[in-house]
Structures are given as C-alpha cells and as structure tokens.
Amino acid sequence: MARFAYEAKKSPQEIIKGVLVADNKAAAVQKIAHMGYFLVSLDEEASAAQAAQGVASQVLGRIALKDVASFTRQLSDLMESGITIVKALDILYNQTPNKKLKSVIMDIRDFCIGGSPLSDALARHPKVFSNLYVSMVRSGETGGALEKILHRLSDFSEKQLDIQTKIRTALAYPVLMSLVGLATIIILMTFVIPKMMVMFADLGQALPLPTQILLVISTAVKNYWWALVIAAFFAGAFLAKVYATPEGRLSLDNLKLKVPIFGELGMKVELARFARTLATLLENGVPILESLKVTSDTIDNAVIKKEIEKAYDAVREGSSLANGFFASAVIPGSVINMISIGEEAGHLERSLFKVAQSYDRESDEAIKVMMSLLEPMLILTLGVVVGFIVISMLLPIFEINFMTR
Fold it and tell me: Could you tell me which residues come within 8 angstroms of residue 31 by beta carbon, excluding any fewer than 6 positions away?
C-alpha cells in the first residue's frame, strides 16, 4: 500500500487537497473518481511505515489520556448520529485544539479514506492508542457494533482518567508541603545558620552538641551541595538501570507492593485495572487468550504482570483462568473465587466487573486513609527537623544569657 497526495475539483469553483492510500497510482485514480472528484494532480508520498514514522516524529511526547478520552467520546457521539468515520474525523480534526492529536487524526482519516479499517489506522499510533483500544475497536468492526464499542471505550477511558485524577489530587498537597518544607530547611542551612555561627564563634565559647551537629551539617550542605547533587543523579541513574532489567524491575515492583499504605493502594488500583480491562474485552467478544495478553500490557507492576502471564500460559494449555491464578501469592483469594464463580456460571465478565467495582471503592477508601495519615506524618517530620534547627540555634543564646547572670 502506498500513500498519494492529490488535488481535485469537487465543483467548478471548489478545489480540495488530500491524501489517500492505494495499491498503486491507477487504484488511487479510481478511488478519486469513485468519490466523485475531478482529478487535477496526483503524487506518491512515502510508504505507510514511513508516514507513520513521520507522524510519530511530529508527536513529541505522549498525548494525554484526557485528550484520548475526549476524542473517543466525540467520535462515538458523531458515529451514533449516523455520520461516517471519515466525516466524523474531519469534524474532530477541526475541533481539536491539541496540535499533536490533530496530526494523528489527519493520518487516521487519510488511512481510512483508502478503505482500511479504523482499527488498522489506530494501530499505526501505538503511543496514543493502546493494544486494548485497538483490540476493542477491531472486535466492534468484526461484530458490526463499532459505535457501541466506542461508547464503552470512552466510558473506560474516562474511568481510568478519574482514577489518575484522584491519585494526583491526593498527592498534590503532600508534595507541595514537602517542597516548601525542603526549601525552608535549605535556606536555613545555607544562609541563616552560617551567619549565626559566625556570631557565636566571635564570642569564643564552646557550642552545645546539637549546635555543633547542626553546624557540621550546614557546612556540608553549603560547601558540598554539588556532591549531593551528583550522588543523587548517580543514584537515580543506577535505579533506572536496575529497573530497566526484568529482574530488577520485578524486585523493585515487589518492594513497592510492600511499602506501607502506598503498596496497598497500588495493589488495589492495579487489580481494579486488571479486572475492568479483562471484563471489557471479554464482554466485547475478544477471545480470552488475546484478552489476557492485552490486559497484561496495561498493567504497570511487573509482579502482577508476571502472574497474569502465568495464567495466560495455563489457559493456553487448557486450564481455567481461576486455576491459572490458584497458586498465586499475589492475587487475593477473593478475586480467584469470583473468577471461578463467573467461569462456572458462564458470565466471567460480570464477575470481573464486580471485582473492579469493589476495588474501586477500596481504592477510594485507601486514598482517604493515605491522606489522613500522610499529612500528619509530614507535618510531624517537618516539625521535628525545623524544631531541631531552631533549638540548636537558640541553645548558645540561652547559655550566654545564663552565664551573664
């Protein structure tokens, strides 16, 4: 398949330009004639793969989930109103303010004009549309229910966006408090304390032990801050290198699950995502093996991903999904029981949706617990550090007053 840029007359006064995909130049001419246009010029562009790379180079960074959710919802609404895919994409191209997403929409539109299915066009942009997204669209095309699938996809994307927003909102205040507290401590250690220490040194008296400790720390921070920055950089680079290996990522992700409060929250969010993704795919007719493979790609934690891969191997060998998770030390027994009940009743997707809803509620509760504990812990920690600094600075003053009496 090749891409052809064309210029054609839609009417005696109106000239349009566009790009379409065809096997060869003759096929492109036939497609333009079939659309009812009078061809003016036709030039072959780069191959489909090169074109995808060209668009990918324009899309610097990832398009936000919010933009994808909005695109899906609008596309679903337009198609449910009876508008063709190409026309709907034209409308979305004109309405979308995000320039990166506009480039992607234009490429999808041009690909669809050539007669290719929407799922193939979406698959050309894996950084924007996940395997889950493409698989569901493909199942909708196969079953003749694309509008319905897009509607469910928009609901799914908006739910994922809602979870992300809750977590970010919950962490925003603690992060801001930590940054302000850290900035305050750095200012005290590098500017205020050295000036006061000069004053104490001029008095020629021995400093209390807490003050001496504070002076050593302050001197180290002021004179060797660059070493601390370099050490932090190399520590981050080392962790990134370890995380890039399968064994290292598995160990670090396993450690994440054991962190108090945060580990439990991460587990619940991942289990809710697993159950909802698998249920959504199964409900829309995607085979269970393909569904498990796609679901595995959506999971961030390597420990849970490994358990899903084990279950995939078990199901491929003829076992049930519940038996595939039976020996797991990570997947809770309640989840395995719900899967077993769903398989026996022939409604696995319903059981998985219930699991997802249950863990969504537990995730909300875990976020509330995290917020109720995290803020006091931060305030206490910052209070202890700042209190130590203030007391260490005041102790010499108290001793001077005591000696002068």
Answer: 20, 22, 113, 114, 115
DSSP state of 62: P
Which pTM was predicted? 0.65
Which tokens in the block code for residue 167? Answer: 């977590």
Phi first, then psi: what are they for 44, rounded to 5°?
-80, 135
Q: Where does residue 228 rank: exposed (0-12), middle (13-18), buried (19+ CB within 10 A)?
A: exposed
Q: Which of 239, 258, 259, 236 is nearest to 249 (CA)?
A: 239
Whether residue 75 contacts residue 150, with contact meaning beta carbons closer than 8 Å, is answered with yes
pLDDT tens over the chain, length 405 residues: 566 777 777 776 777 777 666 666 777 777 777 777 777 777 776 444 444 444 443 444 467 888 888 888 888 888 888 888 888 888 888 888 888 888 888 888 888 876 778 888 888 888 888 877 887 788 778 777 788 888 878 887 887 788 778 778 877 878 888 888 888 888 887 787 777 777 766 666 677 888 888 888 888 877 888 888 899 899 999 988 988 888 888 888 888 888 887 888 888 888 988 888 888 888 877 888 888 888 888 788 889 989 998 999 999 998 888 898 887 888 888 889 999 999 888 888 899 989 988 988 888 888 777 777 777 888 888 888 888 888 888 887 777 666 555
